[in-house]
Structure formats: C-alpha cells, structure tokens
Design goal:
This protein is α+β, with helices and mostly antiparallel strands. Helices cover about 50% and strands about 15% of the residues. It binds adenosine-5'-diphosphate and magnesium ion (MG).
C-alpha cells in the first residue's frame, strides 16, 4: 500500500492543483478568500472554473454538480454534464465562471417552510469557495462537486450551511473587537475549529433486507432485548474483528483520497457499534467533510455487504449513536482561545472565552437543546449512555478552581497541575491533562476545546454549530458592553467582569454524573429541567428572545425563523408518520401472522394432549398469555391507525406534530411493549423478522 501522504486529497481540487492550474494572481486571490475570509473577486471566476474543468476532465469527470445542504438533512445534488454547443454548433466541454458561481436547480420539492410555495418557486445554489471542490467517483465516470449554499429567489436561507457561515462571521467580528480593546493588534480574523466524532452501526446486508423497519426508518421499531446486549462492555475498544477492519481500511483509504483526515477508529459500547473521528479542521470544512464521510461510510459498507446505520437509536435497550462536536476558536496567529496555557489565571483571552461560553449557554440552554431535538435524537437522549436532555457545562476540577478563585470563593495557584504518579519508576512520567473527561455531560471542556455530545449521529452539525457560535457571540458582546462602560484599566476591569460572570453562571455548571437521579433533582431545583417534547422544544426558535439574538447577529430573519420552525416540525411529523405506518404494516403483515402460528401450534398441542386425556395447565396459561398479547397488539395498532389517519386528514403542521409527540409516542410505547413481549413467546421458526440477537451478533 502507498503511503497515505502520497494519495491524500487526490480527489480534491487542492492547493497543489490550484497552484498548478491557476495564474499566480487568481491563485492568490482565491487563497485569500479561503483563508482570510476576503470577499471573492468575481473577475477570477472564469479562470477558476476553467482550471477546475481541466483538472476534472483529466481525472475522468463528465459532469458537475452544486452540492448543498437542504434543511431536510443530508446533502443534495443535481448533475449537469460539461457538454455544450459552441458557436459553430459543435459539441464541446465547457464550464464557465457563471456556472461555477451559481446554479438554479429546480429543487422545488425541498422543504422551505412555506417560503417558496407562497412567494416564489425558484431556488439558487451559490459556490462556497471556502469549502473544497472534489470529485465523486462512480464505476464509470466522475462528477465535479461544488460545495454550495442554497437560497430562495429573494435571498432567503433555504439551507443549513448559510446560517452557520453567518454565525461564524458574527463570532469573528465580536471576538476581534474584544481583542482590540484588550490591546491585541495581531489578531486579524477568527477561525472556528471543529472535530466531529461519528458513531454508527454495521449490520449484515442480508439481515437488513429482512427488516422493513430498518429499510424505511433506519431503525428497528420492534425487537426484544437479547440475553447478551452490552452489559459487559466487552465490545468497547475491543479488538477490531477482521471483516470490520477490512471495511475500516477501505473506508480510510476512500476518506484520504477525498482529503478527509481520518484519525481514529474503534469499537463503541454497543455490539457492532463503531466510531470514526477525523482530525479537526476549519468548521465549514469539518461539516462538509462529515457529510461526505457519512455518504462514503454507506458506500463502502455496501461494498463489504454491510449496511451502515447512522440513525440515533437503531436498537432499543443498547446505546444509540451520537456525533460529538468538538469546538474551539483560533485566530490567524494560531492562538487557541481555549488553550489555558501555562498561566491560565493571567490568560485573559482564555478566561474571557470561557466566560462568553458560560454566559451564552446559561442564557440560551433551551435553544441549544432545541438545536438537537428531532425524531431520531428524542429516542436517544437520556437513554443508555446518552447525554440527558438537560443542558449543562462541565469544566473539570482544574478550570472550576480557576473560575471559583476569580469569583472569590477559592484560592488557586498555577502550580496545582502536576503529573500522575503511577508508583512505577521505569515508566515515563505522565503530565496530567488539564481536565478529566466527564462523559456524562452534554457540553464538556476537554483540555483545549469544548465537546458537545448531545448532537445526533444523523444530524447535520451545522445546526448546533450555528447555535453555539451565536450564543457565544452573545456572551462576548455582553462582556464587551460591560467593559466599554467601565472606567480605568481594561485588564483590571476584565477581572471584575469575569468575577461577575462566574458568579452569575454557576447554575449552568455541573461537575457530577449527569446520568444520575441526583442531577435530575438538582437541575429541577435550578430550573434547568424543561419537560418540553420535541415540537415544543422547536417552538423555542420562535420566541421573542431567540428572534432578538438571531436578529442582533444577522443569523436568521423572522421569515427564515418561521420557515425553519415549520420545516423542523414537518420533518418531525413525517418521520413519525413513516415510523408509525411501518409499525402498523409490520404488525399486520408479519407480526400478527407469526403470533397466530404460535397460537395454532399451542392450541393443537393442547387438543392433542386432551385426546390423550392429559391436561396441561402451563400450556393453557401460555396460550392465554399469548392471546392477551395478541389482543393488546390489535388494540394499540388500531389506535395508531386512527392517529395516523387523523393526522393525514388534518394537515395542520403544529397540531400533527403535537399529536405524534404526545399520543403517538404513548401508543407506540405500549404497542412496542406488547410486540416485544410476544416476540419472547414465539418460536424462532415462526418469527419472520430477524431478532436482535441475530442483528447484533458480533461480526467476525
Ligand atoms: P475523545 O474526545 O474521544 O477522547 P479526541 O480528544 O482525540 O477524542 O478528539 C476528538 C476530536 O476533537 C478529534 O476530531 C480531534 O481532532 C478534535 N480536536 C482536538 N483538538 C481540537 C481543538 N482544539 N478544537 C476542535 N477540535 C479539536
Ligand atoms: Mg470525544
């Protein structure tokens, strides 16, 4: 095998290719836009488009596409060939600056929250030069992919990327202002660094094909717990089995070719659950790479006769999958504002960043929660080893001591951080990390970054990044306003502001076990626990407070917020509709017939025994248990049918989302209990769906 560095990024229009193919002045202008957020100079568009086309065609491309991130989740693409008629009517390959910069996919079926159907139907995609252009390879040819934003005719946001880019700009502006006030002349622009850990399950394709629920919902809607689930945690970090390792090797190779810096691969806690984490990158690139990675995982899995499940809760009773979003901010001098450095007490940029994060989350924890609530993640959060729905911040002992010292309630000296004494002389001395890891916290400080662990595995993490950037901008803005209103030496004032902030935000900090009942009780007392269901949580977006912060930082207009809320609710209802319809269909076509077979079998046995004059109480009891189950299932499935029907005729988005979240979930829970109960009483030969012990059997 070649060295990774030899083929890394060969499918991307990377710096080396740009330098080869572009004139020096176009190259410099493009790099200034990519690296320093300089406005794009449109005069270079034709030059860049031509270079991209030449490179793409040399590599076997026939088509190009603007690739964007609709609000429904996932990615979208519509391919156009390079072919066109020249002035003499001959067919040639051409790709103009205009085609690079803008495209108008009809795309009228993408959710727009009513914006396009009521006002205008056109949707536009526009090239995002800060992300990297790449090639998708299929068996026969390749397609040039241009990462893009997506908007309506009047410029309203229709995608998830644009608000994130706007939030990054907002954060940049306020942080640079604060740095100026502190006397820093070197910080010119800010970068948000993001590393996304992605969890997923692999299951054999043959079994997937026998589970209609996996096929239509990406999750199982029924399934009794197997005898051996994840009780022993023996899968976590276990040795990677050969078939899986072969898949991971192929996956990594594809990722490297696509310039995605895959770094870590390991077994996760649940059986057949795995994780992959690339090195962190600029946040826009990290999000695009994560979306690409999700597509590539599916494709490579298929080649290895697996199906990769990215749903947040494919199997009840074992861990679900998350996306851990690691976040930090850097400036152009490569200073990480979340790096405590050797003297954290004197490191004002660091302390003020912690303060801005605490202020933002303290004020907008409900918005943060809203950003991750959807039909998939609601099934995962608060369950097995998943962060609870209560948002809190973990700082770790070291950083907590620093904050408490500044707040005046503790004494701390920089020398407190030491090394770990293993009592073994011959082993190297280990420097202690700044913070321990609290894996139960939804938002934890992990040394030089924060880790948001409540994001769902299937979600586009732009949504949570938009919220983090926005509310932290709000925190910074508050600090800036306070500092500006104070007289005297700015650095002295900064400590006074820090003291206030650390006192004001104590409530959002929690260092203990977030999975415990104790935390639940404390959070209730602190007013942090909100009992909102998913649609209610989505409504947080349209509160006056959230509208105001979105307006303040120019993230979303009122119209865009209304549209977002509508899209989120519609998408919630659609997922629930599919889940419930699938459940009804499964019960009617596979589960009830399976139970009937077992009932018949029992009844026949009882009759046969009767003829032999043998009365068996146990068999009678088993038969009546099963009949009870059957009846409970019939009853619940009828309720579910009624509910789905009433939503189908209702058409009111708010009302439907609430019905699905309240009645729907209650009925589905009872139905599932009855079906899973029946599964345990029916012989394997009669149960036509593969069971959990088969789906989760270790792949070897
Ligand atoms: P874990 O949290 O599982 O122990 P790591 O600490 O190795 O994993 O990091 C997880 C992710 O965080 C990786 O994608 C890594 O590149 C990223 N990361 C590391 N440092 C930073 C940083 N300063 N800012 C943002 N992401 C970071
Ligand atoms: Mg992590």
């Amino acid at each position: 095998m070649n060295k990774i560095s030899q083929y890394f990024g060969e499918l991307t229009f990377n710096r080396r290719t740009m330098r080869d193919k572009l004139s020096k002045s176009s190259y410099d202008k493009l790099v200034a836009t990519i690296e320093q957020n300089e406005p794009l100079d449109f005069s270079i568009a034709n030059d860049v488009a031509h270079a991209m086309k030449e490179w793409a065609i040399e590599n076997g491309a026939t088509h190009f596409t603007h690739w964007f991130q609709p609000q429904r989740g996932g990615t979208a693409e519509k391919h156009d060939s390079f072919i066109t008629r020249d002035e003499e009517g001959n067919f040639i390959e051409r790709f103009s600056g205009n085609s690079l910069i803008r495209s108008e996919p009809d795309a009228s079926s993408f959710p727009s929250g009513g914006m396009r159907s009521t006002f205008e139907a056109r949707g536009y995609t526009a090239w995002d030069p800060t992300s990297s252009v790449f090639l998708i390879a299929s068996k026969k040819s390749k397609t040039l992919v241009i990462p893009s934003v997506y908007m309506s005719f009047s410029g309203d946001v229709l995608d998830l990327k644009t608000p994130m880019l706007r939030s990054q700009k907002a954060l940049n502006d306020v942080v640079i202002k604060l740095q100026r006030l502190l006397g820093n002349r070197f910080a010119k622009y800010l970068k948000v660094a993001v590393g996304v850990e992605q969890e997923y399950f692999l299951i054999p394709k043959t079994l997937y094909c026998k589970r209609p629920d996996l096929q239509s919902c990406g999750m199982t809607v029924f399934g009794a717990s197997p005898a051996k689930g994840q009780q022993m945690s023996d899968h976590y970090f276990g040795s990677i089995k050969s078939k899986v390792l072969a898949f991971m090797e192929d996956l990594d190779e594809q990722l490297y070719r696509n310039g995605i810096p895959s770094k870590t691969r390991h077994n996760e806690v649940a059986p057949n659950q795995f994780e992959i984490a690339p090195l962190f990158e600029d946040s826009n690139m990290a999000v695009d790479h994560n979306l690409q990675l999700m597509n590539i995982i599916q494709k490579v899995a298929e080649k290895h006769d697996f199906v990769a499940l990215m749903h947040e809760k494919p199997f009840a009773g074992v861990n679900g999958s998350g996306k851990h979003v690691n976040w930090s901010i850097y400036d152009n001098t490569e200073t990480n504002y979340l790096e405590p450095s050797k003297s954290p007490l004197k490191n004002l940029s660091f302390l003020l960043t912690i303060a801005a994060v605490l202020l933002g989350i303290n004020e907008y924890s409900d918005l943060m929660r809203a950003s991750i609530m959807d039909a998939g993640n609601e099934l995962r959060l608060g369950g097995h080893e998943a962060p609870p729905e209560i948002i809190s911040v973990y700082l770790g002992e070291y950083l907590s001591n620093i904050c408490d010292t500044i707040a005046g309630s503790k004494k701390f000296s920089d020398s407190e951080i030491g090394s770990i004494n293993l009592g073994l002389q011959h082993l190297p001395k280990l420097a202690k990390d700044i913070s321990d890891r609290n894996r139960t916290s939804p938002f934890a400080f992990t040394g030089n970054k924060f880790e948001f662990r409540a994001v769902g595995s299937n979600q586009n993490c732009s949504e949570s990044l938009t919220i983090i950037n926005t509310i932290v901008s709000w925190g910074f803005e508050k600090i800036l306003t306070r500092l500006k209103s104070m007289k005297g030496e700015v650095r002295d004032n900064a400590y006074l502001v820090l003291k206030d902030v650390f006192l004001e935000t104590k409530c959002i900090r929690f260092e203990g076990n977030c999975y415990s009942q104790e935390w639940f009780d404390i959070a209730k007392q602190r007013g942090l626990f909100s009992n909102l269901n998913t649609p209610e949580s989505i409504n947080i977006y349209s509160t006056d407070k959230v509208r105001a912060v979105f307006k303040q930082f120019k993230i979303l207009s009122d119209r865009e917020i209304d549209a977002k809320v509508m899209v989120k609710k519609e998408s919630y209802s659609n997922s629930k509709n599919v889940e419930f319809r699938t459940a009804i269909k499964l019960v009617r076509s596979l589960i009830q017939p399976s139970i009937t077979k077992q009932i018949n079998h029992l009844a026949e046995t009882i009759l046969n025994l009767k003829q032999l004059a043998i009365e068996n109480v146990n068999l009678n009891q088993e038969l009546s248990n099963l009949l009870e189950c059957y009846n409970a299932i019939s009853q619940e499935v009828n309720k579910l049918k009624e509910l789905v029907h009433s939503c189908d005729v209702c058409q009111d988005i708010d009302c439907n989302a609430m019905k699905y979240a309240e009645q729907g979930r209650t009925i589905m829970t009872s139905l599932r209990i009855a079906v899973d109960n029946a599964e345990k009483q029916v012989a394997d030969e009669f149960w036509s769906l593969p069971k959990y012990h088969q789906l989760l059997a270790t792949i070897i």
